[in-house]
Protein 1
Amino acid sequence: MKEDKMKFPVLKRRRCQLAVFVLMTTTSTVLQAQNKIDLASLTAFQNPSANWHLAGDVRADLNQNNTLILSAGTGILVTQAEEGKHGQDLLSNSSYGDLDLELDYMMAKGSNSGIYLQGRYELQLLDSWSVIIPKAGDNGGIYERWDDSKPEGQKGYEGSAPRQNASRAPGLWQHIKISFQAPRFNTAGQKTENARILRAELNGVVIQENVELSGPTRGALQNTEVASGPLRLQGDHGTVAFRNINLTAYDKPKPELLDIKYAVYKGNYKPEIDYKKLVADTRGSADILSSNVGKLDNEFFTRYTGTLRIKEPGEYSFNLNPAGGNGSIIINNKAVVNTGQRKGKATLSAGDISFELIYAKIYDYVKPGFALSVAGPGIREYLISDANVASGETVDPILINAAVNTNLRSFMDIDTIRVTHAISVGSPLQLHYTYDLDKGMIVQVWRGGFLDATPMWHSRGDGSSRPSGSVLKFGKPIMALQTLNSPDAVWSADTAGSSYKPKGYSLDGNDRPAFRYSIYNTIVNDVTRVIDGNQGFHREISIENPVANLYLLLAEADIIETPSDGLYLVNDKSYYIRIDDAGGVKPVIRSTNGHKELIVPVQKKISYSILF
Amino acid sequence: MHYSIKNILHKNYTAVLLLAMAITVFGMEGWSQAESAKEDDYFKIMKVPAPEGIILEVGGLCTLPNGDLAVTTRRGDVFIVENPTSQHPYFRKFASGMHEVLGVAYKNGALYCAQRGELTKLVDTDKDGKADIYETVYAWPVSGNYHEYSFGPKIAPDGSFFVTLNLGFPPDWWHPKSFVPWRGWALNISEDGNATPWAAGFRSPCGISMIDGELFYTDNQGDWVGSGSIVQIKKGSFYGHPASLVWTNMPNSPLKVTQDQVFSKINPRLDVDKDGNPVKPPNIVNEKFMAEYEMKKFIPELQTPAVWLPHGILGISNAEIVKIPEGSFGPFPGQLLVGDQGQSMIDRVFMEKINGEYQGAAWAFRSGFQSGIVRLAWAKDGSLIAGETNRGWGSAGEATEGLQRLVWNNKIPFEMRAIRAMPDGFEIEFTKPVDKKTAEDIASYSIESYIYKYHAVYGSPPVNTQKCIIKGVKLSADGMKARLIVNNLRRYYIHTINLFGIQDKENSFSLVHPTAYYTLNNIPEGDKLSMTGVSTKNSAAGTNKTGGATARGTSSGAVTYASVKNILLKNTCLSCHNPTKRQVGPAYVDVAKRKYSVAQIMSLIKNPKPENWPDYSTPMAPMPQVSAADARKIAEYIKSLEKK
């Protein structure tokens, strides 16, 4: 292969683009203090009915429907469905229009609940563990609308299935982030714009994006639509727990940019330019702030002037992303973003104020383009400039869907560590894992989409792929098997002294790999399979010749709980480890450096399950 | 497949180049046949039909004992192509999911592949036609840098394996690094997984090859590598790039050469700008420099190329080397063919051994492939399979991938068959008897010699260029050999041997490839040729030999393509550029769109700014050797293409 020449500019470019993407799709926490609902009591809610409780801890029973076992305390909000009783929903005292909502929730087995934005638009919460193709009625779906006038079987309409099933097992904390935009009304009270779920992210993956809601979903508080309404948590269908409920309301009008004029000048920008002496190549006025105004591709700069109409006084942040050059912003005759910088803040009072933006294009190799986004008091970060030219480059993604059992080796980044001898094993059951062939360790498991190979196969690529589903990482890659002189001995970070040698893998008739390696003069066979019913993975490690004092590191986390014999809840209820057959020996939870390790002596064979 | 066939009909610019060079040097005299035969009159590029949807970004190729073809891809697949030379080959996916497989070899019923991080043995034990064992023979460290490509394996006579490992690219990519052992090395690996570091100093050794039980490789031009070349790999040798030497202190290193040994003689050029940020060091035109062979005085382990493959002429990113088997490709059995990725072409090489070291001559052989050639393999029927990809790099053939076949039509092309070094010159052997009149005329020949710099700068211009004086020529009685007596031969130098005036006896055709590049590592001992029967006739004596097209080009007023074409050819510009079409580099019309001034273009020829062309993966080499007059002409031509 020939070597790199252009790699770094290209990478830089991509990073810029990513920056734009992130900025456009996440909400600003800079200026918006999140409002976390205090769950020391239920005072944030309207007349809570008897099915709503507070708890200090909750735990599900994987064998019992609709059951969460509560420990006394506060901080967790629980609705318990009781046999024969119909519970009631919970409404917040406050009303919300545009809203970012972020919370943790835990489903009981077989349970059903929902988050109703404005009491009207439901994002479904359901025990959808093990579902392969999720529907609108599954966990993370936007529930369908309902028309009673239609014949049976045709009453339900609209709704939006999540893009993939990112759900976790009952009894595990799941994390959801929702960005909601309320419907808009004119002064006469007529709706001018439908409500939208701008974005919903479940357990780390985007499951809904920019979904328009033509009206309230089935089971709405009311079928009328309003500018603001209470948050409503469904409590009448099943047992579910919530915690860390964070709300950020966006109820203030956005600034507008008016009377935009531009002048494009040839050459390189210098801050001390006297515009009176300069002849513009092109001039004009525009409806939107856009790089798409001049004929020049490079070595030019454009000066935009206009009026920024501020309706809500307060601190504003500006985020400028100029492709292939730099830029600056002057507001009210004060520099807010200096040349070479990208971000700036300004405290602005209401009214019309002067606005000036310079976009200087320097580098030949990037197409012109820039993005300016603004966030302010009660104003969600939004793109105020032309979205068509927000960055210079777009790439067709190379996505690998495991329609059949599919294995793919690549570099795999586990946080800051690049696993160089990694293989990802994908299944049409939408359960996948990555195995580190250097350490005999499963470094991550996930549900949903298999792999995004764009980083590896676009252009030269960087040799890596990444999961496109909802990932559960198991921490720093570390040797899975080790001999310990005593059960307290430190788990070694590397393979030194173990004579570790990877031997590769064999495929069964369905292309599922069984890994082999040699260590301490024995052969280890390491086989992981999707559990029937898609609840997670079953792993069996067998040793050809017994090795004295050999241990398997099952899990490493800050918290490891033991809800029942042979069952472990790891890392603040992120996943379960279930011992299936340890050959009669018992795993040990030990503390090292303030965190916990779950280890088990290994004689001939050990098998366990990862449930998530 | 979704390739267009236009690439198959791709214009043979190398041949055009050489013909035009003939005009440049000789004017119109001495060149009578406008219809001389071309490459494609003898060697046809055929397709290997493949099912739609398969992505054949070829990284490895090998022919199996039964004639099937194993093809590995950058997407990690291994295909077995049954009946690959028929019009209906059958593609069977043998393995998949591997990490960018850039080589494959067959041994005892198994396939062995180099993935990025290991040598893997693939076996089909249940006989369902696809591998079920993916056995790790040996896993080597990788840091995870994108440029850490791994090539091979090649199987040694003792059954062991060789792989070569690229350097990684840090943010200052112009100074690649060996982040982990044994990047920049060749490894020898036994069947049972014991690895022995074999040799160091590699940069991007894509073209690992086993020729008659001896290991060779081609490297890619870059820092410390002035041009591509063919080099023999010997245990304990050093191949020039110092980055890999950081591991010679390891106990199993077969050599002890250190980076300091190199840097004490040659500045590593860790240039920085005024803010202290690393910058790509430019070539310094007027400086004291060393050629690689001169470093051998200080580092005897340094192994210099057997045959240089001049950059921009015989490729820009040389790849696999194969030996022509007996019975195929006519008059060239035993010689070597070398693929090239960037120029989508194949070179031919004749090697001989003088004083125990290889050296020899290289020619262009066939261009016009649809994508960049990375791998070559002989099919059972004697045709040559080319495995191709250009993703991320670009190539003269514009398709991103391909599997093609080169077929000889059993007609003998008029070529130099071989060039052998003589104590006082060269002996040129032809494939057909030559016309006595042209062959006995010294004016039909011209020779000059040059070398490349050995330095930390990316690539090298040809330097120390000197014309050689041809004192006489003696033609053999059968007209098959011309013995040239040449003054001022220079050991280690590349001798560019032009035979523009030579015609064959039968058709008065010019040579298909009239220029050879002979690397003279050793000048053989022995008696000089007696002057008996030597012709010293020189029809050009006393005339202006270097006038020709260059002079004509500068005389007319308006600059047109026709008027500068010969300048572009002479300076090898057209190896990478075309007036209107994207090639390895941008089309001249696209350069014109940048609206550079004539002075800017002249400066960019000497010091290109590849960072301005990120869509083109192969950077232009600095061309300080282009004369100011030529550079001005080229600049004026490009300027004339601007849309007014």
Note: The longest strand of chain A covers residues 68-79.
Protein 2
Amino acid sequence: MFNDFEILETLSMFREQHLDVRTITMGISLYDCATGSAEETCRRIYDKICRKAENLVRTGEDISREFGIPIINKRVSVTPIAMVAASGDTTDYTVYARALDRAAAAIGINFIGGYSALVQKGFTDADRHLLASIPEALSTTNLVCSSVNLATSRAGINMDAVRMMGEIIKETAERTAAQDAFGCAKLVVFANAAEDNPFMAGAFTGPGEPECVINVGVSGPGVVKTALESVRGQDLEHVAETIKRSAFKITRVGQLVAREASRRLNVPFGIIDLSLAPTPVVGDSIARILEEFGLETVGAWGTTAALAMLNDAVKKGGTMASSYVGGLSGAFIPVSEDEGMIAAVESGSLSLEKLEAMTAVCSVGIDMVAIPGDVPASTISAIIADEMAIGTFNNKTTAVRIIPVPGKKVGDKVHYGGLLGSAPIMAVNVASSADFIARGGRIPAPIHSMRN
Amino acid sequence: MTDSSKQTAVITVVGQDRVGIIARVATELAALSVNINDISQTILQDVFTMIMLVDLPQNKFDIKELADHMEALGHEMGLSIHVQHAGIFKAMHRV
């Protein structure tokens, strides 16, 4: 039925190469929870999440046990709360964050996403209330993640929102200063946000999604790294081919888990997110894959080319393995969550500017990057603006999850623990962008007919 | 994946070769009413490597229980024994 090589290879992927399913995320629509009373809406939100996701954690654990596949996270993403809260009778939206937090704790998941607003073109009143409440919401809850979509390729970039998010990130950092600005690790801004992304902090259930859906995020940098070790010195065609084969196998494991979870929970299967997601564990790093290409360290010239190829080959292998691929699907390059990235920053080979270039060819963006606490809000907004431009003008998703740590300077390091890892404080260009950010308004959507 | 309801598992036994490994593992499986469909066994650089394809008795116990049981046996015998659902191998290695 199977040959010995195949069986031993699979065994080694789970045993030595850290292959796992990173998350089973249940998307739940909260549209039917909206009422004129915030209290009633919160009650409905809590009840619906507890009802729909009651068996999520247990089912994930059962599948993990029966198939011998580690499933690291079980999570829930919901309709952007600004849409659900709009009809309520309060402007203090933190009540909704607390309702989400209570529901997440009750069902035993480790994060809930969707304290979100989509403001790429402009703000509803509800969007403004939600944005204003983010610092308090993230500093007074444990499990709630927040995301804001600031730009799309069709609508352009809402620079008023970009300016506001710089300030909101700073305020969130101040309010969670005692935990080294941990609140900012739960807050992400997007261009072209994916409505079916299962990964935190950016997961939410977009307006086009069904009532309830199962999305699965796979992982497996270690598997790709190990496979590449077998083609050392060979030309790049062999590298591309090897990555595709690995991505196929990884994705099939995700597909198996997703179908099984969908069947047992009686909830439709949505998508597999093909992202290679690192963890701080040695042997589970994206940076080390790039180095396996032949780079002395990630950040060296050639890194962007290697990453572009890795990202593309992962998608090619993965789409063969599953018909429904979505979410972010590519290589993640968070700094704090990847021991190879951390080492490159500490050795001085990886700068924020190089990271920015890398985000032009992979998923997500400037992710889990800690910077000095005294970087002005306008500079953070300008970093966001640059990332939004890369996403908007290249028709891809980009994001910023940046952590200005109060009281910390370049050379310091902050520790968040678990999957979030630890982050060396990175240097930020000190030249001012304040007048640019102060202009406000919108950056018009790019023209798509002349693709040069 | 319809495979999930049919409880077929792959057992791998890896370790230092000595007399009676197959006998001991097979006896244990027989005692648990686990039927062996296929065995392949080889010595790779002095390392004993055996792969078995087995059927679990319907509804008697789940794969995890078998895995725990066999892992304990492996520990006792100084070998590494792993049990995994066959569905994984099919998903990964068959287009």
Note: The longest helix of chain A spans residues 236-265.
